[in-house]
UniProtKB/TrEMBL annotation:
Name listed for the protein in its UniProt record: Putative immunoglobulin g binding protein a
Organism: Rhipicephalus microplus
Superkingdom of origin: Eukaryota
Amino acid sequence: LRFKWNNRVYLIPRDMKALIAQLERKGMPSDVMHILYTRFGVLQVRNSAGIVIMLTFNGERYRVKVEKQTAVTILGKTFQLPREAEKMSAFVKADKSRTEPMLQALQRAGFMFIPDSSGNLQTIQKGAQMIKLGLRVRIAINVVGTVYRVPFDLPRLVKDVRSFGRPHINSLLDQLGRVGVKVTKQGSKIKILFNSIKYIL
């Protein structure tokens, strides 16, 4: 299997050790790790705290540097992920109004959202840590009667926003912020950031 990343082609499994070493130097980029897991069949081996300590491919194991737990604070309550992922999910399930604060907190903590094709979020990832949330959250916004799934429809949204009036744009920015999309204004331009990808409105 050929895996091209960072201007180099790696043959898997032959170059797995070299690839892991380079990934560790770059801080285990979430988007790259996600591709290895979902498209190349690389598996994770975890310790008792849920932290990935090895990667496996075709029965071979490869050690990786142990990453720290990530603190996620939701409405004043802090959870250490991945160890307390189930506890965090239970906290949110107990009161649906906690869903949006959770999405915002996860984005602030640097987690990448991995929604399914319908826009439902069940999995998040940071570095080598792919975490099942244990709940399903639909990430979508509605502007002028049109539903946009995040992140799938963000490119279309960027094109459509030119036809929106000011009230609709204000509603759009509010909805984006509530589902964890980072919104910043620079002069007449509005920049949004989601899963480390920037869009300019």
